[in-house]
């Protein structure tokens, strides 16, 4: 296998890794100043990086064919295109924030499954950001407040360079997650809190069902949903939909009403889920997962036939609750399943996909894991 030394004719200065995430509940509310409850997963994107002193940037990936080379000054909105924009955009965002960073050689050696709704993009951004922080002595990665600044640079990379209108949940999770916990993110005031989440201790597992239908956040649909949410808030004279009531939502026009209804009800579901987890009643969140999926499928219209089937088949086989996770339009679903029924649920989902003529899904258990770190 071609490695860093073969590609760049020198050794890397180190290796950094950042996790993907599963959002337990709180979908498509991050850009509405809402509440989200994600957790980091064991699958990680790993980058090998070496600093340069000439301002050049060379990006390679073992998972992608399109390499990119340029200078720091070549990086900006829509440049570079493709996967390289997520990594290069971090350099651009840190420079724009006033940090002195130089060029790098970077190789992506391992990656969170691409397009599976597990936030491979944020994992790449955050592993790159932590590497740049270490290599150029920014001093941000060692404290929660510093990591929030790195996460902000990653959000800027995705919004301003790649052009995907994501809200920041993924980057915050990848940077700030704590093993054995979900992370309650308040997207209005920027605060976060670890919420105990150890499914195995409750005799449960979270199965991630990757439908293998790939999605792209920059294809326009995500941006349209975000624009509708912002338009609904403006129509109600509010800065966001965070504190809007269902009664107020009913006054909106038919185009905006279901989008706003999802936001309002999903934020309420997050509050309910956190209350249950804080009380040690994890097994009782299943109906909240089901209600979340129904809202995402019908009010927000970001599900797909494959995601709907994955959730339906998992519930029929014994899951306590199931829903799509991530941006939607493909990607993954999650199911909360008693440990002794994980094989049965996985088998039933695979059978349902085969009968429908869909590709066989990839199914794995997700463990609440730690955030980005240097690995060597």
UniProtKB/TrEMBL annotation:
Q: Which enzyme class?
A: transferase
Galactokinase N-terminal domain segment(s): 4-50
A Pfam family: GalKase_gal_bdg
InterPro entries, A to Z:
Galactokinase (IPR000705), Galactokinase_CS (IPR019741), GalKase_N (IPR019539), GHMP_kinase_C_dom (IPR013750), GHMP_kinase_C_sf (IPR036554), GHMP_kinase_N_dom (IPR006204), GHMP_knse_ATP-bd_CS (IPR006203), Mevalonate/galactokinase (IPR006206)
GHMP kinase N-terminal domain ranges (all copies): 86-176
Write one Gene Ontology MF term: galactokinase activity
**Domain of life according to the entry:** Bacteria
User: Where in this chain does the record put each GHMP kinase C-terminal domain?
Assistant: 274-353
Give the Enzyme Commission number. Answer: 2.7.1.6
- List keywords of the entry alphabetically: ATP-binding, Carbohydrate metabolism, Galactose metabolism, Kinase, Nucleotide-binding, Transferase
Q: What family does this belong to?
A: Belongs to the GHMP kinase family. GalK subfamily.
**What is the protein named?**
Galactokinase
Q: Which organism is it from?
A: Pseudonocardia xinjiangensis
Gene this chain is encoded by: galK
